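Supplementary material to the annual report.
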Amino acid sequence: MRYLPLTPEDRAEMLATIGAKTVDEFFTDVPEAARLGSTIEGLPDHQGELAVERHMSNLAAKNRSASSGPFFVGAGAYKRHVPATVDMVIQRSEFLTTYTPYQPEIAQGTLQTLFEFQTQVAAMTAMDVANASMYDGSTACAEAAIMATRVTRRKKVILSGGLHPHYAAATKMVCEAQGFEVFQLPATVDGENALADAVDDQTACVIGQSPNIFGTVTDLSKSADAAHEKGALLVSVFTEAVSLGLVTPPGEMGADIAVGEGQSIGNGLNFGGPYVGLFACTQKLVRQMPGRLCGETVDADGNRGFVLTLSTREQHIRRDKATSNICTNSGLCALAFTAHMTLLGGKGLEQLALLNHEAACDLADALEAVPGVEILTPRFFNEFAFRTPMDAEAVLAMLDEAGVVGGVRASRLFPDGHMGDVIICAATECTTPEDIAAYAAALKEII
Amino acid sequence: MRLSQKNYAIDLGLFPLGSCTMKHNPRLNEKLARLPGFADIHPLQPQATVQGALELIDELATWLKTLTGMPAVAMSPKAGAHGEFCGMMAIRQALVARGEAETRKRVLVPASAHGTNPATAVQCGFIVDEIKANARGRVDMDELKAKLEMSDDIAGIMLTNPNTCGLFETDIKEIADLIHAAGGYFYCDGANFNAIVGRVRPGDLGVDAMHINLHKTFSTPHGGGGPGSGPTVLSDALAPYAPVPFVVKDEDGVFRLVEDMEGDASESFGRMVAFHGQMGMFVRALTYMLSHGADGLKQASEDAVLNANYIQARLKSVMTPAFDGYCMHEALFSDAFTADGIETIDIAKSLIDEGYHPMTMYFPLVVHGAMLIEPTESESKAELDRFCDSLEAIARRAAQGDETMKGAPYLAPMRRLDETQAARKPVLKWTPPETSSVAAE
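Predicted assembly:
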């Protein structure tokens, strides 16, 4: 059998050392009625590598990969070029097969990369401090809302109409479980600053997103000012980390907490996970943060090194009074992020962002030239919404037949939003002029 | 590369971190997770173009339901603690449906529980009530009964089984029956499911919800702190409240994602996360399950338990087992055998100099100076013997009060790090030296 090094002779010898006749003796605490005599029924027995590989490859073959043709789906996850070095680094056994760095003397590799990750996230978001990652952008958003209620001791959370609906749903669920009120503003393509009008002196935080789910880039400064005037916090969300290479970062707009999805740097699509949540805040809120933090210190010889720190916020110390229940986070995805960011550097990120923006501009020009198409997003980075004269689901199905995966229909994200004719599409550095031409040509045929 | 070489990892040797389950991570899992048909598909592309992905999720769900004997599973939780949150939210929603969400707030949690348990209960709006362990390391049944009789506000219990002392909760069925009779639900923390896969089905023990750490039991790599994956199995009583999204197979054989809270999901407690869960981990876990098969998974549990008992037997004459009798998949010792002045941390750090990662230390909290050793099934007898020889020698030094242990490790990339300084004046990011900013001006 695979992956099991004990031989029958080993087992017999070990049982003799222990003084037991069979392994059954170890399971006598199990209530008799619950002891299984034979192997569980209904599941296959062990198989060799070739058979397993064949089975899994057959499943994989039933999916259409994003690289197999023109592909324009975004809305919180982005088709990206991941440099070969990144995947090579994260497959180093010493990174891949180690645990959370509880023993810093033999985990400096992981700890230093986490420190670099925190440094990069803080710099990109223009925030004072960042943690060592959350599960993903949506759970980071929910944690930010809870943190804001803790900081302000208030119970009301206001979500913009441009917040990714999955982020909104996850945040609403978490907040309401703890007895907090959540107000969701109606979905609008360009309405982030409606937050400024909605905030009142009961509000813990307003949560705005830029670029938002429709791709609209918004200066959230006005919402920040309005929130601060009422004693509330601004939580600034992004789902596309590459946008930070071009747009004004959350810290410069007055955000108190910045959260987002880091998938688009260093990580593949993976059908939605694993991804990496980015979480940053101002210095004065650091002790209210959820999640792991890595900090600098010295060892007994005075050499510079790194440890997990401020863990009195965390569940393994503080238990029911912890800032969050999070334990395992997204360490390896954070490493991928850091490896890619290290290759890019600040300038590289800016150039990458520019490539994305240019591709999206070309796409918008090409689609707008198709009669009947109306671009809805006024200011975009690499993603925008457009209206078609037909039902969006039908359009996407016909595009699919033409070999083009044209985007996400807004009605999938907003079932009650009366947006049956709206498609949200994205371009990245992977998008070629031929892809764009194919999209425009197919769309012209359809509508 | 240089940084990676400063890490210890399971690929380099035994990693006996109790309750963390550091087992071999097969490379086949990595290879298959990188097939473009899994790694390069978007969560929101048309469902007709991802039928294989949905089928894989459904197939993994079938394995998990069959191995646990439970009727339903929520696949979207991102890690163990997130799975706990899922199960406890399902309990909360069931109480809402019964009209008792406001009156039933109390959740019983043993003192030996992982910190995530009480933290999760509070996140779901519950109040935590701690129950003590008895002298055998199990739930104190008298205290449990007294608490249940005294209160009419019980929402449920969160119990790890096998528990964090590495012991099977002997009275588990009775505990389940008592909780149910009191109108509550039984959340089982499945962090230690790896000890009993194929030998016991939690569904036969009266469990209502249990998360499964795919990164422990089913061998997806820990990655230096994640990503994990925490699918959560649910009983018939809780299944209607499962979070969205989930996969259903229609009569025509087409797989469909239920994403909105209507129809099949009208009673759902909501959405936990963007998209559909940790697909990359699903691929790895299913690959592992198919490789082992039902027979291999059972053998793996038995070998894990055998290895732990072997370590306990080999070391019990020089160290102090926390409890009498056999253990499950991990052996727990207290620091009673050490001389004054030598602590658990000194033993742990000395083990680093012997070339091993230390065991879990100071957890569970119910045992003084706890040392929790989980070898897993993927270690050979020869490796276990080497490890036991090393630890035995350290234990003897500890018993003799060898002061040099206070300075260990001596041979690691770094000496002991000053955690107090790190916390007192936190430096959480790199700041460019002052001189360079002056030069730039």
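Chain A is about 35% helix and 15% strand.
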